[in-house]
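Morning run. Coffee first, then this:
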Amino acid sequence: MGSTSAASHGSEGVGRRDLIKRSAALGLISVPTVGFLSACASSGGGGQSKDKAGKKTAKNPLGVNDTAQMEFVLFDGGFGKEYAEDAVKIYQKDFPKAKVKFSATQKIQSTLQPRFNQGTPPDLIDNSGAEQMDMGVLVGKKQLADLTPLLDAPSYDDPNKKVRDTLRPGIVEMGQFDGDPVWIMYYAYTVYGVWYSQKALDSLDAEYPQTWDQMLAVCEKAKKKGMAGWTYAGKYPYYIPFSLYPMIGKVGGVEVLNAIDNLEPNAWKHPAVKACFEAYYELYKKGYILKGTPGLDHIQSQTAWAQGKALFIPNGSWVENESANVIPSDFNLAVSAPTGIDTSDKMPFGTIWASGGEPFIVPAKAANGEGGMEQLRIMLSEASSKNFTSKVKSLTAYNGGTDGITLTPGLTSGVAALKLAGSNVVNPRLQDWYVQLQKEKIGVAGLGEMMAGRLTPAEAIKKIQGYADEAAKDTTIKHYKHQ
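And here it is:
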């Protein structure tokens, strides 16, 4: 499984991948304590002196000091640490005079908080897990280095191609908050959508539905064979957006999702939102949701789905690893972009949500920030990307790196879904800009109540728009907008 997840829940598994994450995606996993936020912002210590920059050359485009120590702290989660250790070996080979101090921990916040306070942070951090530091605060308090020099540097494999030109869609934008600077490099790449067993779909003599009438017909076929059409993480219904948000984008266009992210007035009242909410509510009304789903957590719902009790589940690509112990060997795991309403949708079938997870940062006060960025440049090479994918069953931000690797069924399907999507990849930002709004309010109090039949679509939309308006007016939080 991945390291962080939009779907981590309190003390439950630090080993799950973020939305942003898995943040995500991958949502931010947990909000650090106020004490940490204020302490991190204060940077009260005397700090450390910056290492003298090295000479920029073709082999050293970032001007790394080849004798300076480079310190790298990794989150020790579901991805493990072997992929990072392998990349560190390449750094050491390229800079044999430099000492690399590498460590892995699950306690990112408590380990690094004192060092941020003292102004002595490491040079590269995998800011992930249950103790993930709040990105919005780090950016707002100018605690992070702008990674634009890395993105504009020649890629590790091809000096004629910039690093930014080797990345998957949405990766650069995910690392931005306001304006052009890029504060975060999301290394893993998560495909969100509707996950299912191709074997089960074949048993119904059905193809994956592209319109909502077709979806209802497939669910009816499943129901007649004793299988529910859908299940989801009822206790954590903010999983529903993994397929619902890209459906809204498909139906109404990416501008609808941008308006929602921007907390614009009446954004949730757009006809595309209404159509998609009513479509999902129809699954409940027609009895196509697995009985008892509102009481299931993510593991329970995934287990029921893997056991063939339900055909479809909204999820992210970490589900293959997370449910590996319950998915049958002949399951033939597959993922699809969400079903639309009909041919009047603004975007084509295949429009999907895919985005980065596993956020890497270079602190602004790092002694050897160039070294931290160079380590990331190495990790974004084809060889390092292949190494990561083959070892942890996840794609990386590098747009490629799968040739010659035997991919698992879920990864194979994810790659195919990305190919079908082409440029039609959406990346909603609520899950990393406004965590509480996305999870507790839109997810639990809005969508969760609607899918359990306790709110109508109109009531859910009104309630969620109210929550969004409250967030827009809240002067205690930093607001972000698509540029």
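The longest helix spans residues 435-451. Good start to the day.
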